[in-house]
């Protein structure tokens, strides 16, 4: 689980950096986005970077932020696709990361119960 959390930390840190680039119009045209999209980008930027720090340190709050971000993006891109569009790659990534996390947590708890 420790290695997986570190891998997630790197992924979320990269995501946070990409959102920083968005805010400065270096990747997407943040200045031309609707206020809903701007708020979404800022939310993701802040929480991606915080989650990365917490995941790297293997803190419970980092895992909680990872779960919050993954679930909120799934809700946004599935339930509110008319606003955020269908981000199929992000949907797939979050489903896989959540499934792997749940599997590792489940197998880890089974090992503890056997002892």
Question: How many domain modules?
Answer: 1
Instruction: Determine the strand fraction and express it as a percent band.
Output: under 5%
Low-confidence stretches: none
The SSE order reads HHHHH
Instruction: Label the overall shape.
Output: globular
Mean pLDDT: 94
Assign the structural class, choosing from mainly alpha, mainly beta, alpha/beta, alpha+beta, or little secondary structure.
mainly alpha
Strand tally, please? 0
List descriptors.
single chain; mainly alpha; 115 residues
Molecular structure report:
With 115 residues, the chain is an all-alpha fold. The protein has one domain (2-114). 83% of the residues lie in helices and 0% in strands. The protein has 5 helices and no strands.
Describe the secondary-structure layout.
Blueprint: H1 2-23, H2 35-56, H3 60-79, H4 81-84, H5 88-114
Quick structural gist:
This protein is globular. The protein has helices at 2-23, 35-56, 60-79, 81-84, 88-114.
